[in-house]
Amino acid sequence: MSDPVWVGVDIGGTKILAGSVDPHGGVGGTVQRPAGPRDGSVEELESTIVEAALAAAAGAPLVGVGLAAAGFVDAAGERVRFAPHLPWREDDVRRRLAARLQVPVGLANDATCALEAEVAHGAARGRDSALLVTVGTGIGGALMVGGRVVRGSGGMAGEFGHMRFVPGGHPCQCGLQGCWEQYASGGALVREIRRATGTAGSDTLTGPGITDAALAGDPAALNAFGVVGRALGLGLAGLVAAFDPDCIVVGGGVSAAGELLLAPARGALVEGLVGAAWRTVPDVLVAACGPEAGMIGAVVQARRQCG
Amino acid sequence: MSDPVWVGVDIGGTKILAGSVDPHGGVGGTVQRPAGPRDGSVEELESTIVEAALAAAAGAPLVGVGLAAAGFVDAAGERVRFAPHLPWREDDVRRRLAARLQVPVGLANDATCALEAEVAHGAARGRDSALLVTVGTGIGGALMVGGRVVRGSGGMAGEFGHMRFVPGGHPCQCGLQGCWEQYASGGALVREIRRATGTAGSDTLTGPGITDAALAGDPAALNAFGVVGRALGLGLAGLVAAFDPDCIVVGGGVSAAGELLLAPARGALVEGLVGAAWRTVPDVLVAACGPEAGMIGAVVQARRQCG
Fold first, then answer.
1. For residue B200, what are the CA distances in angstroms to A25, B64, B187, B205, B286?
2. Are A253 and A140 in the same domain?
3. B103 and B30, same domain (yes or no)
4. A160 vs B241: CB contact, 8 Å cut-off?
5. Which pLDDT does position A98 carry in this prediction?
6. Share of chain A above pLDDT 90, in %
7. With an 8 Å Cβ cutoff, are B280 and A154 in contact?
8. Residue A243 sits in which domain range?
9. Per the structure, how many domains does chain B have?
10. Which end of chain A has the smaller Cβ count within 10 Å, N or C?
11. Is A119 within a domain?
């Protein structure tokens, strides 16, 4: 019989990724399932999560399960209050899944979990404080102070992507205007390429495609990374003024572009940061746990929540 | 012989305020001294602090002294790294003053101390997390999470006033452009009145004068509070998205205007806050410890630092 395992489940807007995670952050086999439509049923979503968690355990007995949810999780780690791409609304997710799985279950926001993973096993290891910014279609975030990830009074800390970056700027899906994620995300890369090349009709333009083009030396793609990287750094300057963290970890799909994104971001961070000349400007690092960060961190935090 | 006392000393850009502070945050007699010029000598500044601390003790034996400094204090509470309006530059202030006063001395940034006071004895008592924003000539700030004020990795957390509010906006003394304090401070009130009334030459316009005029029903002054209060609330919306605090405490000279400032700020906070409809919007409260907050909090934090 196999050794008992902890399983992490990262429930994103489009897909569910589950895998067993060992105490050193190592990931065993993973399974992926579609998250189903936003207007799908809660019952169906939760059944998929249960099935994925058991499949990831691959016959080994489950010790516990950590859930990372792309949505607003309350500060106690019990309920998903709202999830823009999932059917959960004020749902008692932790208790319900613990009852179905018959093991301890922990629940946290996915960016919170990604930062837990980077603190325990990744780029923020050994740091006293850190900011995580996940740059994907939008911007997610989390903040760690004194070794603990800050949840916020209602569990909603870290919504850096919806801080106002440009007054009266681009409309955002959240209903506001000029949000930072409209200027410093994968979506902003696509917009910047379209603006520069006039290819308004191209539906095939994607973040990864733009990264490939930039790596191949395409001038429009390189320029787009310059513009978006600068916007990233200018926004980070405000967050550093507010928190003064030891380091900044940049994760999410767009971070795969590495220095294409981070070099202009570091320049703009120094340029936009109050008193940059007489302070230590925090290191800007690429996340180390990759696309499995949410799953790994879900287990890190579930072991604590359930222990 | 009198009971032994703790004395707090608030060292601002223009004046030094010292007073004895009891364990309940009660303030005995206070003394005030000019802070001296920015290009004055460190020796002279520190002699004034020593003299003020002893005068505030009024013959009672000193137990210890808390210093609140308008400048960047390192995370350990040892050095003042830089102070825009004072001669300290990387100065070992805590140790030097402890040697001269021959009692334990604690040192922290003045906004940090003001929040310590509000948490221990004021508007943020009993809260798990809080943001403090001091609205005076500029904007200072501090953040408390889990009952502890966050110092930041280099002691520089809370510089909310120099987060970018308007790209390419008004130049700021800090060297950047469009800083929040250019739009949501006493300075912004004065600018707004001048803009509205065309009285560019009036040097007699002051924050307190504008508050009096608004309280007397002056339309230009009322409008200025509306504009500046809105800018305050919009900036707070970004900070709430990032931290999700339990409450926001507004202190500083301009907060004396109370609802004239806070009513428009609360409206703009809800308007500019991501997901305001499905979250608890934090309370926006007037600071309770008044102009003595820095002095009181200096003692709160010094008792901890020296205990």
1. 63, 48, 14, 10, 31
2. yes
3. yes
4. yes
5. 98
6. 83
7. yes
8. 124-287
9. 2
10. N
11. no
In chain B, % of residues over pLDDT 90: 83
* Cβ-Cβ contacts under 8 Å, A152 against chain B: 129, 243-245
Q: Specify whether A133 is located in the same domain as A274.
A: yes
Mark whether A281 and A201 lie in a shared domain: yes
Q: What is the mean pLDDT of residues B190-201?
A: 81
State mean pLDDT over B151-160.
94
Q: Which of B94-119 are b and which e, b meaning 16 or more Cβ less than 10 Å from the residue's Cβ?
A: bebbbeebebbbbbbbbbbbbbbbbb
pLDDT at position B202 is 57
Percent pLDDT > 70 in chain B is 98
Pick B153's closest partner by Cβ from A72, A238, A244: A244
A195 in the same domain as A79: no
The values of phi and psi at residue B235, to 5°, are -65, -40
- Kindly indicate the confidence band of residue B116, based on its pLDDT and cuts at 50, 70 and 90: very high
The pLDDT mean for chain B works out to 93
**Domain presence at residue B257:** yes
**C-beta atoms of A242 and B158 within 8 A:** yes
Residues in chain A: 307
Residue in A158, A166, A179 nearest the CB of B167: A166
Same domain, B146 and B276: yes
Collect the ranges in chain A with pLDDT lower than 70.
1, 199-204
Tokens representing residue A271 in the block:
């340029």
3-state secondary structure of B41: coil
Whether A135 and A267 map to the same domain: the answer is yes
Q: How far is B153 from chain A (nearest CA, A)?
A: 5
C-alpha–C-alpha distance, residues A66 and B114, integer Å:
40
